[in-house]
Every structure is written in C-alpha cells, then in structure tokens.
Amino acid sequence: MLITIVSWLVAGLLVAVAIVVLALMVATWRIAANAERLVPACGKFVEIDGNRIHYVEEGDGRPIVFVHGLGAQLHHFRHTLFGRFGAGYRLIALDRPGSGYSVRASGATGRLPEQADIVRRFIEELRLERPLVVGHSLGGAIALALATGHPTAISGIALLSPLTHLEATGREGFDLLYVPSRPLRRVLAHTVAIPLGLRYAQPTLRFIFAPQAVPVDYMIGGGGWLGLRPSHHFATSTDVVAVERDLGQIEKRYREIAVPAGILFGTGDQVIGEAVHGQPMLDKIEGLDFERVEGLGHMLQFADPERVVGFIQRIAERAFAKVD
Question: Which of 98, 80, 113, 141 is nearest to 272 (CA)?
Fold first, then answer.
C-alpha cells in the first residue's frame, strides 16, 4: 500500500514538473514570436564558414564596421549612429553570430579569436578595403583580438566602453548567464531564461544604462526585444563562458597593436569600470587616443551619439590617412 502511494506521488510530481516545463516552453515561444514581430530582420545575409550573418549598411565611401557587445545586436548602432555621419562613409553593422538574426555555426565556441576571425572573413566577403572597426563592450574585446590577430585586415579600431582585461570578479552581475554546460544552457534558453528575462528586463536595463535613463524606444528602436529569444540567450550565455578562455592571452599582446586606436569611456559606467578597462590601456597601446567623459554610463551611443560620432570620425581620419 505504501509503495503504491509513493508511486502515485512520484508520478504526480513528474506530471506537475512536465506541465511546468511545457508552460515555460510555450511562454518562451510566445515571447520570442512577439519579439520577432516587433523587431523583424531588416538587413542582408551572408554565409561565413557556416555562420549566417545578418547585417545592415548605409552610405558610400570609407568603410566602418560596427561590432556590438554582449547580448546586444546591430540596432545598438543602426538606431543611434547611422544617419549622423554625413557623406564619405560606408557604415556596416552586423549581428554577431547567434545574436540578433545571425545564426552561429553548429559547434562554434564563441571564443574571441573565433569571433574575430569571422569578422575578418566578413570583411573579405564584402570586399571592404581595410575598414575601421568600432567595438562596443564585448565587441571592443573582439576588435582588440582582430587588431592583434589580423592587423592587416583593418585600418584601425575605435572602442566604446571596451572589455579589455580579465577580472577575477568579472562575472559579477552575469552569474545567471555563466552556464558552462552546453546542454544545460540550451535547456534553460528554451524554458526558464526568457520568461525570467522578460520579468526582470527593466531592472536589468536600468543597471546597463545607468546613470542615464533607459530610452523609451529601446525595446523596439534599440532592438531590445531581440534579446528575449532562445537562440539569442544561448549565444549570450556562450559568450560569457567563452570570454574567460582567451581575454587573458589577448591582453598580453596589446603592445603589438600598431594600427591607430582610440577608446571612449564614461566615468559613470557601472558595467565595465573605466579604471580597470580604460586607463591602463594608455600604457599598452602606443599613440592611443583616450577620451574620458565625466558621468557618462556604459551605453555611450544612446546617451551621447553626437560625441560618439565625433570620436569615431576622429579615429577614422587617423586610420584612413595611414592607409593612404
């Protein structure tokens, strides 16, 4: 009798768990479908070594390639900076593999040299003549990996609030994204991660944008909804795990960087500290153009797009002059 009761209890528990999991999967599907309806793909696609890369471009002239940060997508540049440069530039922003509408190749690791090599191959595929590469946050680390690993492919780098050094406490604030197990990462992405992400979206965004306010149109104009999709969450978690494997080694090569380089950092950045990731770079890259802005937070391109455009144009002038 006791065995029968226990069996029924176990069966009931399994059914309850199955119902909860199914409900989470359905909720995830609905949120993701809504995200894709609100922010559809808007650019072109190109195949790069098994990665399907989504990108947008604008203008004619000297090429500038924009590489976004962790959990972001190309709208972080398209929405904020495109249309502000004037004539003479060809602006190209891409969704990094797995982010936005780009699809990461099966078996890809997301490691920094791997992502830098994809950007290099993207440059080749679009036949861009030594573009300036603009990297924000994690995109800054990828730009640095490109400058150390493939310097002849680019003319220079302009870094916005870049991740430059491996910190022992670097995971703080990103603990829930650090999931070393690939299968578990995928299970979470298709069940609990997206509903929780929606539930805590506003507090998360306030932290990322602080001390500035979150733009009222960020979720649609800035592409924020696209982060609430399983594929995007899986890629973001993969990036968090992968960055620890290579950043420490890339740091050791900063003094090799010979292309024109610049860094724009806000002193109010709560995501990536300027004291650790900005100031030390002055001693590591010769001729570095370093601009510090008092009180500005992590999302520079949203908070002060005109300043960001001016900074990029200043680095572009140096970079393209050297190419000529």
Answer: 141
| Distance in angstroms (rounded) separating the CA atoms of residues 261 and 290 | 9
Q: Residue 170 pLDDT more than 60?
A: no
DSSP H or E stretch at residue 301: helix 300-303
pLDDT in tens, 26-43: 889 999 999 999 999 999
Q: Which residues pair with 159 in a beta bridge?
A: 135, 263
> In the chain, how long is the greatest CA-to-CA distance?
87
What's the Rg (C-alpha) of the chain? Answer: 21
- How many helices and strands (H and E) does the chain possess? 11, 8
Determine the Cα angle at 165 with ends 240 and 267, to 5°: 100
Q: Cα–Cα distances in Å, from 33 out to 26, 217, 219, 225, 298?
A: 11, 19, 14, 10, 29
The model carries a pTM of 0.94
CA–CA separation, 156 and 6 (whole Å): 67
- The amino acid sitting at 225 is W
Helix (H, G, I), strand (E, B) or coil at 61: strand
Task: Give SS3 for 204.
Answer: helix
Alpha-helical runs (H) found in 49-137:
75-78, 112-125
**Helix then strand then coil, % of the chain, to nearest 5:** 50, 15, 35
